[in-house]
Design brief:
The chain is of the alpha/beta class. The protein has two domains: about 220 residues, Carbamate kinase (3-Layer(aba) Sandwich), CATH 3.40.1160; about 150 residues, VC0802-like. The chain is built from 14 helices and 19 strands. Bound molecules: aspartic acid (ASP).
Amino acid sequence: MKVIKFGGSSLADGAAVAQAIDIIKADPARRVIVTSAPGKRAKADTKVTDLLIKYAAVTAVGGDAAPLQEQIFARYQAIGDYFHLPEKALTPLRTALLALPAGDYPDDDYQLAAFKAHGERLNARLLAAILNHLGIKARFLDPKEAGIIVTGTPNNATVAPETYHLLAQVKLAPDERLVVPGFFGFTLAGYIATFSRGGSDITGAILARGLGAASYENFTDVDAIFAADPHLVDQPAPIKQLTYREMRELSYAGFSVFHDEALLPAIAAKIPIQVKNTKNPAQPGTTIVSDRGFVPSRPVTGISVGKHFAALYLHKYLLNKEAGFTLQILQILNKYGLPYEHMPSGIDDITIVFDATKLTPALVDELCDQIQSTINPDRLEWLPHFALITVVGEGMATAPTTPAEVLATLAKEQIPVLMINQGASKIATMIGTDPADADRAVQAIYSHFFN
Ligand code: ASP
């Protein structure tokens, strides 16, 4: 059995859904289908998830939500009409959409999560109805019935381990297909909570693990995962196969084709993931596999860049002799519930890299004040814009000159390096640069290793 997940652009309109259905029909093993919300039909279009976020905001301030309700429902109606779906099949979708403001929510965050989740929830209902209408036996399975239990915050939830016991009890009749909405689960108290954005990938991986799938197919809008961002590098090499940990490293700092958190359930159950293009399913795509027996074809597999970082630089003489210095910093971060990304240190200084999307200017001020008064560094510098470039490859473990080649390439381009982080796994070298230099750095590194 295979779990197959379609991204938002693969379910954006009737024609796209028809292509997705052809893919479902092409392989009888594709028994569990995970939906995203309808995505963009064109560049200037708005994703249904973003319309639902607006709908939640208007509802929260008691505004007139009718135009948004119509706009959202029209997206599902248009898909239904494409397949000549009878009106009565769409009525429950409209009812559920209009009932959202009257729901029971502990607070605004849970309300937002429930609104957002309906992008996928209604799309899964719709797809199940369309499949049945076309004579393909399908059953809508809500995460509540399936047993997808989540913990954590309402809009950034984490799957709870008991989910896998519950999923093991899901029955799948030999002739039926299940259609499950991605992106959300239920808390133990029974409220909807969503994963972070792009989180339908996570649902697919949870189902693949919980239902014991042989593989997890992720259909999206690109032919493959590429060795570098196609917006930065002209026709980058497609990656045929890469390991889970290479993918984790790459998606952490920039590759957005596949959600990094979605790898964890697949890793736990050693399920291969295939990323393929809905509009071009004959292309081989990219397969993500375990590193056991993996033979890399070149030292570097991919180069990613993330520009959403910030860094705190601290300098203090004899820092290396001062016990408890790092502990004090960590205690301050802990007080603000703030995770850090990296903390490379020297004998007299330390750099702490943060995900800037988790910061506000007020929080930065407070953090710097606290660190200044508690630790009393000789120098404290806040770098609000910081880019991280990650050069990744299982092949780097046996090609020890790779980090030196990366640095030499940057030196040739006269790009200053603000940080170097090379873990003992030897499969990733991380370089901090000024965001203004980052694209050029990726182009130069790509050209050195691939051209
Ligand atoms: N629809 C959600 C989002 O836009 C989740 C997903 O697409 O995977 O983030």
